[in-house]
Fold:
Amino acid sequence: MNYRFRPIQPLLLAAIAGFTALCFNNAASAHDPAVAKAVAPPVNKSIVPVLQSLLLGDAPVGTAPVPVIASPAQGATFKAGDTLSFSGSATDAEDGVLASNKLVWWADLHHDTHDHPLQQPTVGGSGMVTIPVRGETSDNIWYRFHLKATDSAGRVTEVTRDILPKKSTVTLATSPAGLKINFDGQPTSAPVSVLGVVGMERDLAAPDQNLNGRRYHLTSWSNSGAATQTILWPNVNTTYTATFADIGIAVNDPPSVTLSAAANGILGVPMTLSATATDSDGDATVAQVEFFDNANLLGADTSSPFSWSWAPSSLGSHQLTARATDNVGATGTSAIVTVNVVPATGDQVPPTVSLTAPLNLASGIIGTLNLSATASDNVGVVGVEFQFDGVKIGAEDSSAPYQASIDTGAYSAGQHVLRARARDAAGNLSAWAVATIQLGGSKTVPDGFTKNESWVTGLSSSTAFVQTPDGRMLIAQQSGKLRVVKNGVLLPTEMRQFTVDSNGERGFIGLALHPNFATNGWIYVYYTTTENGVHNRISRIVANGDVSTATETVLIDLPTLSATNHNGGAMNFGLDGKLYVGVGENATGSNSQSLTTPLGKMLRFNDDGSIPSDNPFYNSQTGLARAIWALGLRNPFTFAIQPGTGRMHINDVGQVTWEEINLGVKGANYGWPGSEGMENITTGLTAPIFTYKHSAANPAGSGPGGFFTGFCIAGSTFYPSLGNFPASFRGNYFFADYLSTFIARLDLANNNAVYAFAKTNGQPIGMLVGADSALYVLTRGAVTRISANAP
Structure:
C-alpha cells in the first residue's frame, strides 16, 4: 500500500492515528463475532474535521493489529476430556502478517460469575488444551479463549471466543422410592434430575440406610456398576436407578446429647440450660430434649437449638441431665452437670438491654449513624455502653433515652457489628445486645489507614509470598519463578526458576521459610512437576543472597494428579517446628475422607520431610498417609498460624454454596464432601468457626456470614499483639476473597464477629504482616501495602 501525506505537524499525525484506529476497531468487531479490544492514542476531536484533507492515500495510518481466532471455530462445543486445538493469526496495515512472537493466547474456565485459569498466557499462535474431567460440577460453565496481538508500534488488540459445553440430564432414582444416594459425596434424596456437562466424572454411591423402620441394602445399579462408582456424564439423558433389598427391621441407634449450664446458680434467678442433640441414623431425627433436676422433669424443648430456662428453687448441689428422644422412640441421656445454687446476697439480678436503632440487618447506611437502646433493672440502670466493631463509642450514657452516634464515613463500606450493654449500681452487666449492619458508600479502607496498591507492581500470576528476617519478600509465580522484592523494589532477576506444569491451578503455588532461615537460608517450595508423572512436589532450596544456585533437595512427592484444580499448596511452620502443608483433593471428593491418601488433608512433616511419629494416624496408616494431621478438606489453598499461640485457621475453598474458616485441630475431620459450611455437620465432624455464602441470604445479612458473599477464600494472616495497628485490630484474623476482592477481619475477642476492613482492585491471594507492622496483600500482579497512620 502507498501512503501520501502533505507536510503536517506531529500532533495531527497522532490525531490521524487515533481516529483511524478507532474506526478500524469498530470494523474489526463487526467482522468477527469475537470481542475485539484495541489500545490506541486518544483522539483529539477538535481536529477531526480536517483529517480527510490531510489524508490523501487509500489506507489508514497507525491502525491496530487484527487478530483472528481460527480454532476453536465459532459455535464449537466441548465435552470433558476433549483435547482442543487452538490456532490464530494477526495482520497489521503497517506490518503485514505478524510473526508468532507478537501473539499471546490463553484460556479460562468461566463458572457462574467467576473464572479459573485453564491455559496460562502462551507466546505464539497455536497450541492444545485438554478439558479436565474433574473439577467444576456445575453445568453453568464455559471456556473462553483469548488471543492478543501487538504490532511494532506497541498497539494491542485482544479477541476472545467462547466455547460452550455439551449437556445432558441424569436422573438418579431408587427402588423402592424415597431412599438416598450419595452424589459427589453429598447425601441426595432420590429421585432427582441434574443437568451436567457431558464427559465429566461424577461419583455415585448407594449406602445402607433406614426408611420407615426398615433397613435397606443395595442389590444393583441399573448400569451394573459397583455400589460406589464413578460415571462419565452421558451424551444423552440417562436414568441411573439403585435397587435396594429390604433386609429387615432397622436397629435404631439412640441419639446423643450434651448438656451445658453455668457451674453456679442463684436462688430464684433464671438460668439457661442448653443441650446439643444429634442422631446418627440416616432417617432418624431428634424429636425432643427433656431437662431434669435430680430426676425431676423441668420441661422439654421440641426444636433445635434445645434449651430450658430454669430458676432454682432450692439451695445446694443440683444434678442436672438432658434426655433426647428420636422420632422412633429411642432415647439417650447426657452426662450429669452439677450446679451449685447459692442464696442471693444484695442485688444479683443483671439489667437487660435492647438496641432499638438501627435495626438489625439495616443496610446501605451512610452519614451519621444514631444508636439508641432501652434498658431496665430491678433496682436501676446506671448506664449503657455502646460499641462499634468491639470499640467503645464515647462515654457510657447514664440517662435514658440511651444514645450514641458515629460518622460512618470513617469506616470501610460493608459489614460491621454494633453492641450495647447495660450496667446497674451493683456492677451487674447485661448480656450484649447485638445488631449486624452494612455501611454503604465506596470507602475501601478505614480512617487512620493508608492503602498503596502500587507498592510493588510488575508481577505475573503470583501465588504465595513470605518475608525474610532482613525484610526482603520472596514471591512465587505460577510459571515457576521465585521473585525477590528488596527495599520495596522488584528485582529483575529471579532467585530461582522451577520447571513446572502450570495448567489450570497447577504450577509454583506454595512457599515457606524455615524458622532458622536467618542462619540456614532454607526455603520450602510446593510446585507441580512432570517428572515421573504429573504431581505436586515439596522441595527445599538454599538462598545465597538474592539467588539460589545450590542443588534442590526433594523432600516429598505427592500422588499423581488427574485434575488441574484443587491442589492446595499452602505451607507454614508451626510453633512445634513442624512443617504443615495444605493439600487439595484433586477434584475427587472421596479423597478427602480416605485415610489412605494424603489428598484433601492437612499434612505435618519434620523439616527434613520425614513424618513425625506423634501424628494422629501414624500408627494406623503407612507411607505418606502417616503424614495426615487433619482430613475432610476440599482445597486448603491458604492457612495461617498465630504467633505466640500456635492457633491455626484453615481457609477451605467451597464448591456450590459456602466458603469456610476452620480451626486447625489435630485429627479433626472437616466433613468434605458430605458437609460444606454448616450443612450436614454430624457427630465426629468439626464445624467451621466462620462461613460465608456465594450468594446473599434473604433478607440480606440474615444467614451465616452476614452480609459477606464471595466465591474463593484466599490469603490470611493473624495480626500480632505488638503491631502498630489500633488495639482492637491486634489479634484479629485477616482473610480475603479472591473473586470478591474484599479483606475482612475476624475478631477472636468478640465471639468471632467479622467486620469489613478493606477492598482491593487486584485479586488478593495472600497476606502477611511485615516487619514494619504493615499489612501486605499479594494480588496476582502486585503487592498492596496497608499501613496505620502515625498518631
Observations:
- Confidence is low (pLDDT under 50) at residues 1-60.
- Helices lie at 10-31, 51-54, 517-520, 590-593.
- The radius of gyration is 31 Å.
- The longest helix spans residues 10-31.
